[in-house]
Amino acid sequence: MNDERRKRAVMGEPHLKRELGLLRATMLGIGGTLSAGNFVIIGHAASLAGYSIVPVVFVCGIISLLTMFSYCELGTAIPHAGGEYTFVKVAYGGFISFITGWFEWLSNMFYAALSSIGFAYVIAYLFPQINIPLTAVLIVITFTVINIRGVKETGTAETVITALVLAILGIYILSGWPYTQRAQAPIMSFPTGLLGIFAATAYLFELYLGAEAVAAAQAEIKNPGKNIPRAIILSAIVLIILYTSVVYVAVSVVSPEILSKQSSPIAFVAEQVMGPVGGILVTIGLAIAGLAATNEAIMAQSRVLYAMSRDGYFPQKLLKIHRRFGTPYIAVIISAVFTLIFAATGLVNFVVYAVNFGFIVGFSIVNLSLIKLRREKPYMERPFKAPLYPLTPIAGLAASIFLIAFIEPTVLILGLELSIIALLVYYIKMVGYHRLRIAFGGMSLGLGAFTSYLAYLIGTSQIKLNGISPEATTAVFYALIFVSIIQILAGILNITTTSD
């Protein structure tokens, strides 16, 4: 207990309760990725990869598992709130850790939005008249309230929900398995070429991102040295088997062309296999999965925001812990506001690529952090060590960087813009609010002086505004005088006002 307190003191981290055991941590990882959105996007992926979507799903799982080994080692060595951000902070610090946390936070917000949108699309299979964006927004609001109440209140329910979803998907797989014995689906064919395969891999990469949720909640996991790696690896293996089986059954029952045209592909396949009851059962299961994943994603993003606020990148008010529920409720609310904006768009493919881009950046830097810490801190306590080091982190890094080339160009542009914003936020924080205010004050004084000089030149006719009447020239003169006064006053106030 004393060791744990010393660790928290070193990290400057207020107390978060460790109340998640191995079962609940594993279910958190599984439930975090069993998003309804993940089953909705299978249709579009089938149009990209054809029957070879089956090995694509399997390969995505292996690529994710390579990086999960890095998460396991770093999670046991640095078992504090923040996931990737905290790992990179210890390894690199500075802007690299900030940009990692920035994209981890944004990606979790996109993932929460995707989960809520996926829920709406799945429900629309039974109720076509529902409004997709509105439904997604209502789901985000509901789980924001639930997350404020804390993981203790939701952890048991999440475990039960995940088990129920696994059972329903198990029924789907068992019912459809006979079709796989009769079908002659050429799953190793490449009808869209290698580019289609790579595009599908980049698109489906987020199928396995839920296991990362274990790292995000690692400050609340009991016995982190053992339970963090076990939960991450168990959830990754279960997900690889589950997703590969679900997709294999799907393309064995219907062709990828038909699958790609369905708003809820797996529910459609279930209806072909088990009749209307099957479609309803799977819709219920996927809807429940969408709710659980939204809950997990909202929790994960708030913990990242909490960790970054702990280190001074965001206002300290985000560190406030609810007296009754023991949760960072301000961070939960702030993150939920941005999630609502994304959810209200109702867009699926754009959000999917945005999620993937952010996590690919995070995965790459996590692997680099593992390599750096192995070299610079060889004696750091590591209850778990990544197997086959350094091959696993290098392979995970190479695969992640390669997949970026197949992200939608519009999302890459968005990623560049978000990087620029992150750079501005970081350096504004580094400069400090008071110094920044002085800088803006100086700029205001300079602009005010220049505007006054310009007004003087116009008023004395040294600058003539050709084609403008004398009345309009006078109006421009007085407008410039007014602007200069405002700028000079703003500059004086910014420079002379003392910091709180």
CATH architecture of the largest domain: Up-down Bundle
Oligomer: single chain
Helix content: over 70%
For the termini, the CA-CA separation is 38 Å
Top-tier CATH class of the largest domain: Mainly Alpha
Instruction: Report the sheet with the most strands, covering strand number, pairing sense and barrel closure.
Output: none
The total count of strands amounts to: 0
Strand content: under 5%
Order of helices and strands: HHHHHHHHHHHHHHHHHHHHH
CATH-defined topology of the largest domain: Amino acid/polyamine transporter I
Supply the CATH superfamily name of the largest domain: Amino acid/polyamine transporter I
Low-confidence stretches: 1-14
The Cα radius of gyration reads 26 Å
Mean pLDDT: 79
Apparent shape:
globular
Q: What would you call the structural class?
A: mainly alpha
Structure commentary:
With 500 residues, this protein is mostly helical. It folds into 2 domains: 2-431, Up-down Bundle (Amino acid/polyamine transporter I), CATH 1.20.1740; 433-496. Helices cover 76% and strands 0% of the residues. It has 21 helices and no strands. Helix 5 runs antiparallel to helix 12 (224-253) and helix 5 (53-77) packs across helix 18. Mean pLDDT is 79; it is low at 1-14.
Helix/strand layout:
Blueprint: H1 2-11, H2 22-33, H3 36-40, H4 42-49, H5 53-77, H6 84-91, H7 94-124, H8 132-149, H9 151-182, H10 193-204, H11 212-216, H12 224-253, H13 256-259, H14 265-274, H15 276-310, H16 329-343, H17 349-376, H18 391-404, H19 409-431, H20 433-459, H21 470-496
Helix pairs in contact: 2-9, 2-12, 2-15, 4-10, 5-10, 5-12, 5-17, 5-18, 6-7, 6-17, 7-8, 7-15, 7-16, 7-17, 7-19, 8-15, 8-16, 9-12, 9-15, 12-14, 14-15, 15-16, 17-18, 17-19, 20-21
